[in-house]
Amino acid sequence: MTTPTLGRLETVPALDRPDLLADPVAAALRGWPLADRIGVVEIDPAIADTAALAEAYDLPMTTGANCVVVAGRRDGEERVAACLVRADTRADVNNLVKRTLDVRKASFLAMDRAVEESGMEYGGITPIGLPDGWRLLVDPRVLQIEVAVIGSGVRRSKLLLPGALAAELPGAEMVEGLAG
């Protein structure tokens, strides 16, 4: 299988560079039969944020997909989900995510908790290798991205994958209208 490429980003197969992946991401990829379709690119951590990366590599914002972590409570039970949305949109946390999780109020998980529980760096959290118990909600528009740029679990690299592959991520739930 060919590793995806995009613009000036020099990719290699993700599992060839486990040093560019957070441990949970590398472990998840090693156990996923479609991992050979995912590339990794080393970047300057200072440009890990989507807008900075897009500007530095002359990429349209429509190539990025962001993963945000949200949580809410119902009947004393906390419900956590990672939401994968196109970078040119925002997750509808106050309405659709709240209803999907069936919680009274949904909000972004505190940065320190998201980092600690995911085993990933802030600004690099990705839908690959999420903790057990976290749901993965995916906006179907991500599937339309020819080559999507997502986090790798660390700020010093990004993963590239065909957007359609997001539907095949372990636990992925397609949620129409997840982002606006």
Automatic annotation (TrEMBL):
<dbReference type="InterPro" id="IPR007214">
    <property type="entry name" value="YbaK/aa-tRNA-synth-assoc-dom"/>
</dbReference>
<protein>
    <submittedName>
        <fullName>YbaK/EbsC family protein</fullName>
    </submittedName>
</protein>
<dbReference type="Pfam" id="PF04073">
    <property type="entry name" value="tRNA_edit"/>
</dbReference>
<dbReference type="InterPro" id="IPR036754">
    <property type="entry name" value="YbaK/aa-tRNA-synt-asso_dom_sf"/>
</dbReference>
<feature type="domain" description="YbaK/aminoacyl-tRNA synthetase-associated">
    <location>
        <begin position="45"/>
        <end position="164"/>
    </location>
</feature>
